[in-house]
Specification:
Length: about 400
């Protein structure tokens, strides 16, 4: 295995002013072929998921590192890339932060997604580079605080290497997709990722507090909600990851203990951090407001969704639906094995559950295909799965 230790043209200077940015755009526009793109965030350190470094590489242009803090409007880069294929690894992770700075690729090649469709057992960038190209890529700074300025030289080396061989990886994976007959499938997947609308904000995000399952009553849930919202406001104001202000464990501990005074709150073990103590009265006032809420304003234990109920209740409530689900899952698993890919890439679990809970009538290949399209399945998935799923659902109903 050949280690990849240095960028082929050295570590480029970071683009951090208008003149360097304009020159970088000229170089990229003069290059040819796909453009490798990556972005580094400060997850776990800063509020939100903004990009703190954008890396690009193109044949004939070399590698470009752009500081989106110094150059926050990259719409000019978006214009340069408008008609070009952009190569990303795990595109759904980087597309939101790229969109924040004005970069919205129209054509994608996602090397991670290609690896999944091809059945590669490990699809991290380092693993893919090793397996496909025979190179070892150092991955030592992926969890670093990329909001740091100036960025250390070894971090910049790491960032440049992340796009150093991404085009070569893309080309090798495309050859594998052609050889396996999966290129058209991959192109459908890439187009779906590129055209997906921005994710809607999650309803009641406080419900994702780690450990919330230990809160058994509505009053405790009201405390979790109140403390989560206060923490989010402080984190946003200070541009810090919420977990660095107060950990989830502190919120859950307060909801369980219901302390009657700020001092009692401060004595809870998770409330030991500097910011936890600095904003102690903020947390206590939020807790007190939740304690005083009337019953009618307390949150319910869980919010109803628009899909079927939890699967663990099906066997008792709807045994026929449970049989349909088991049969449908068997079909997806079998097809995925036959085509050497994870079942969730052949068909996502949610449409399988919905189809099993409420199948179309009559149950046949045509009606199942129409229902899968309603659930945003791609045409290659519909073509593979509709007929065998219809047959399995009918057999399950027949008992």
């Amino acid at each position: 295995m050949t280690p990849l230790l240095e960028p082929s043209e050295g570590i480029p200077e970071v683009v951090a002013d208008a003149g360097a940015y304009a020159e970088a755009l000229e170089r990229l526009a003069a290059g040819s072929g796909p453009v490798a793109v990556d972005a580094e965030r400060a997850s776990g350190y800063r509020y939100g998921q903004r990009a703190y470094l954008v890396q690009l590489r193109r044949r004939g242009a070399g590698t470009v590192l752009i500081d989106p803090v110094a150059c926050p409007d990259l719409s000019g880069l978006d214009e340069v890339l408008a008609s070009d294929e952009v190569v990303l690894h795990a595109a759904t992770q980087d597309l939101p932060c790229l969109a924040e700075v004005g970069v919205r690729p129209r054509r994608l090649f996602d090397t991670e997604l290609a690896g999944r469709l091809l059945g590669h057992p490990r699809v991290g960038l380092g693993s893919m580079v090793e397996t496909v190209l025979g190179l070892r890529l150092e991955k030592g700074h992926s969890a670093a605080d990329w909001s740091t300025r100036p960025l250390p030289e070894d971090w910049l080396r790491y960032a440049a290497l992340d796009v150093e061989v991404l085009i070569e990886l893309r080309d090798a994976l495309e050859r594998q997709l052609v050889e396996s007959g999966k290129l058209e499938w991959a192109l459908e997947e890439f187009a779906a990722v590129a055209s997906a609308p921005p994710r809607e904000p999650r309803a009641d995000p406080w419900r994702r507090t780690s450990g919330i399952h230990r809160i058994r009553d509505r009053r405790g849930l009201a405390v979790v909600r109140a403390l989560w919202n206060e923490r989010d406001a402080v984190a946003r104001d200070r541009d810090l990851s919420p977990g660095r202000v107060v950990p989830d464990s502190a919120i859950v501990a307060a909801a369980q203990a219901m302390p009657k005074s700020p001092q009692a709150l401060a004595e809870l073990r998770p409330f030991t951090g500097r910011l936890a103590r600095r904003y102690l009265m903020t947390w206590f006032r939020a807790l007190d407001r939740a304690r005083a809420l009337p019953e009618s304003e307390l949150p319910v234990p869980s919010t109803p969704g628009d899909g079927p109920p939890p699967v663990n209740r099906w066997a008792e409530r709807e045994p026929v639906a449970a049989r349909r689900l088991e049969a449908a899952r068997g079909v997806v698993t079998s097809l995925a094995q036959r085509h050497s890919m994870p079942p969730e890439n052949l068909l996502q679990p949610d449409p399988v559950r919905r189809l099993a809970w409420s199948p179309p009538r009559p149950i046949d290949a045509e009606t199942v295909a129409a229902r899968l399209r309603e659930y945003h399945a791609r045409e290659w998935q519909v073509g593979l799965a509709a007929a065998p799923l219809a047959a399995a659902l009918r057999a399950a109903e027949a008992g």
